[in-house]
Specification:
Length: 106
Amino acid sequence: MAKVLEVFDFAGRRRSTYPWNEWTDGRIWQATKDVDFKLTPAKMRNILYAKAAALQQRVLTYIQDDVITFQFVSRDYTADQTPVWAASPTAKSRLPRKTQSSARAN
């Protein structure tokens, strides 16, 4: 039969697989399959979406081959806004095409 415990240290038992404090800091991150994560990039994107929802944030993602590029942004971010990291012309060349078009329109 199961037993009742008075105390148990749950925090000390579970380690995070990913460096969430860094990845959710608002900077742009590029993670590579089998180096930074073991899942498919599409499944990793789902994990990023779930983490963003848990933090009441949004995450922008772009997948190319085995690499996922992502940035956590505030929940009120809209696609009409130009992200801070897209302010310079050199940064725009790294944006997905859809974002490049909207960034040029601004």
